Amino acid sequence: MAYTSGVATTAVGDLLAILDVDLIANDCWSIYDAAAGVNAKVYRCLDVTANVDFYVYVDDNIGTVYANFELWEGWDAVGHAGVGQSVTTINASAMVIRKDAGGYGMCISDHRFIHIDYVRYVATYIGQLVRFDTSKNMPICISSGDPSGVLINPIGHYNSGANGQWGCLFDESGTVRNLNPVGFTSASGLKLKTISGGYWIPEVAVYNNTTKLIMGTLEGVGGRTYNQANGLVNADIVTVDTVEWVCLAGDTILYHCLVRKS
Amino acid sequence: MAYTSGTMGGVNGDFLPILDVDLVANDKWSIFDAAAGINAKVYRCHDAVNNVDFYVYVDNNSISIAEIELWEDWDEVGHAGVGDSLTRVNGVTMRFEFGPGDGYGLCVSDHRMIFINYTDYRGWYVGQVDRFDTTKNMPIYIGNNSSLLNALGHHDDGGISGQWEALWDEDGNVGERLQPYYEASGDLYRKTIAGTYWVQELPVYNVSTDKLLGTLEGVGGYGYNLDNGLNNGDKITISGVEWIALGGGDKWCFVRKS
After folding, report:
1. Mean pLDDT of the residues in chain A
2. Quick count: other Cβ atoms within 10 Å of Cβ A38?
3. How many CB pairs under 8 A join A and B?
4. Total Cβ atoms within 10 A of residue A67
5. What are phi and psi of B183, to 5 degrees?
């Protein structure tokens, strides 16, 4: 697990340069197609022993504050086209990685990465959950597709349309599905601060919208709440077992979550 | 930790022998005053190493009710409470409810007990949470004072159908209201793709300070509209230990049988 950070620009290809260094530093991630399009690349996450294999197409040629991405089952690196099952939109909107000019963070583990935009304090989660059945390859993504206007995001709030996108390439039965965080409608005013001055940060469980079964928990994302009363603001750091978690609250500062910097 | 079960007998005082055997089998619990009143006794939970000390007055002079009080101390000669106390929550008494022939379960650990009524599948929690600060002695009570839904106390509604309160909070204040981490309703699904259940022990916070005192020991999986196919009394197994599903209407929780 690793955490990197730096300063991003809105220039085309800028995000790809970050991924090419920071993401690929993890052995499970590789550049699979460096010429998938103009300022577009495909990254593969492969860990055979853990039943993990998926492809992430990133189109960073939009030249503004976001890049688009897609999840694919396979990829033709010669024809530069996706193969098999895919998630290219959720709720009829493309998925985005927000990349405003300014600070960014990348939380990278073997099976997922989280990109944080420290300008708008929103994030994108791409990869596996901590799965309840590790025999199943179930890459997911959490994004907020609407790149305009006020950003609620942290992280993805819930699957509610363009402002909240939760989907998986394969669910437990191998089907593309929409997902949701457990407890999203009741995550109001949740208290995280303890009497000892610490924080209790439960990693968010994620369920299949169709089967209502929990697929796993977000790796390093927790403490999601609405209208919290913990005194946390954007970029605040909470330390749990010597590892830092950063508070994200988006533009609205109504919805909070904590992301582990690892 | 232990779990015992049986059937209520239907005479005044018949809950006390259950506590006398099953509760006191744990060496942190003892009978402190065996003559606190007619069919009433006081039990002490004391663990000096872990900063736990409180007294539980149990008045079972009824075939269907055991009234509960928490006390800082007890005078076993004068048979009266001493010091701070929690005798009512939201203006009404705290009480376990049962009837003749009702099945019951009792979960006993060093610092808390949970009483389960297997006829209406309600539960009551008396004792410590798994504290985030173990230097503080913070016994709590969770239950309800009516036959309305319970599913272990649901949440403190300010009335009789949900009672959550601490004898002392983290600052030593008496009778502070508590609430569960999840107090609102929502689609809190619990069943996983592996056929197991995801049950987090429930954190409890102080309403005055908004801070979490700790987590309920062996109580979790609170939910609403679970859609998990469970019925009252169904058992799930986590790490080799059974948890039992309690459902009050559309509210659910799981209690570990230990």
Report:
1. 93
2. 10
3. 97
4. 29
5. -105, -20
d(CA B48, CA B44): 12
User: What's the mean pLDDT in A216-234?
Assistant: 86
Which of B46, B70, B233 is closest to B143 using CA atoms? B70
Closest Cα in chain B to A205: B198
Which residues of chain B lie closer than 8 angstroms to A137, CB-CB?
A: none
ipTM of the complex: 0.91
Decide if A157 contacts A255 (C-beta within 8 A).
yes
- Report the C-alpha gap between A191 and A123 in whole angstroms: 22
User: Residues 188 to 217 of A: which have CB under 8 A from any B CB?
Assistant: 188-196, 198, 200, 202, 205, 207-208, 211-216
By CB neighbour count within 10 A (0-12 exposed, 13-18 middle, 19+ buried), where does B134 fall?
A: middle
User: Cβ–Cβ of B184/A188 closer than 8 Å?
Assistant: yes
* A contacts of B222 (beta carbons < 8 Å): none
Residue B215: closest C-alpha in chain A: A200
Query: B171 CB contacts (<8 Å, ≥6 apart)?
Result: B209
Burial class, A120, CB count within 10 angstroms (exposed 0-12 / middle 13-18 / buried 19+): buried
d(CA A218, CA A13): 28
Whether residue A247 is predicted with pLDDT greater than 60 in this model: the reply is yes
So what's the pLDDT on residue A160? Answer: 84
Count, in order, helices (H) and strands (E) of chain A.
1, 20
A191–B203 CB contact, under 8 Å: yes
Average of per-residue pLDDT values in chain B: 93
B212 contacts A194? CB cut-off 8 A? yes
pLDDT of residue A20: 98
Q: Kindly report the pTM of this predicted structure.
A: 0.93
pLDDT tens column, A154-207: 888 888 887 789 999 999 999 999 999 987 665 667 888 999 999 999 899 999
How far is B232 from B244, CA to CA, in rounded Å? 8
Per residue in B220-231, pLDDT tens?
A: 988 776 667 788
Start-to-end Cα distance in chain B: 5
Q: Do A186 and B224 touch (CB under 8 A)?
A: yes
Q: Report which of B41, B38, B37 is spatially closest to residue B21, judged by C-alpha positions.
A: B41
Residues of A (91-150) whose Cβ lies below 8 Å from B = 132-133, 136
Q: What is the pLDDT of residue A81?
A: 98
Share of chain B above pLDDT 70, in %: 96
